[in-house]
Design a protein that fits this description.
Elements lengths: L17 H18 L11 E2 L10 E6 L5 E3 L2 E3 L4 H11 L6 E6 L5 H13 L3 E4 L2 E2 L2
Parallel strand pairs: 1-7, 2-5, 5-6
Antiparallel strand pairs: 2-3, 3-4
Length: 135
């Protein structure tokens, strides 16, 4: 004797709320991503017609903002500490030829830039001034 169920059962997954969940997840990640973005230094580089894109492997980044804040490898330092900090960074990479890349704001006084190049000369290292390509 064959026994049958009166109502066949169909399994369903309720997916109407998945759109709302995905929207809230996307909103959450967008908000979090903007909050944890690293604080970047705002530097307007001087322009040059002969500027070229160069990839340098062994480098130490030195950044100077328009309000004379100095950063060595994204770490803010006072002017007096620039020389020892760069010397330490060069010592870490002493096996390779290391170049100091100077990211100086274009509104800086020329003397401020020359003072930084003097530090490079004391440390007997090459320094390159970063520029942006003229449009």
């Amino acid at each position: 004797m064959k026994i049958e169920r009166r109502k066949p059962r169909n399994a369903e997954v309720y997916t109407a709320s998945l759109n709302d969940i995905m929207f809230f997840l996307m909103l959450f990640f967008l908000i979090i991503a903007t909050m944890i973005a690293p604080a970047t230094m705002k530097v307007v580089l001087p322009s040059s017609k002969t500027s070229s894109d160069a990839a340098i492997r062994n480098q130490v980044n030195l950044t100077v903002t328009a309000d004379l804040k100095y950063f060595v490898e994204d770490l803010e330092v006072p002017f007096e500490q620039i020389e020892p900090m760069i010397a330490r960074e060069l010592e870490k990479k002493r096996d390779q030829e290391t170049i100091v890349l100077l990211h100086a704001d274009k509104s800086l006084n020329l003397q401020d830039v020359v003072n930084l190049f003097d530090i490079g000369n004391k440390l007997k290292t090459k320094m390159i001034l970063f520029t942006q390509k003229d449009k």
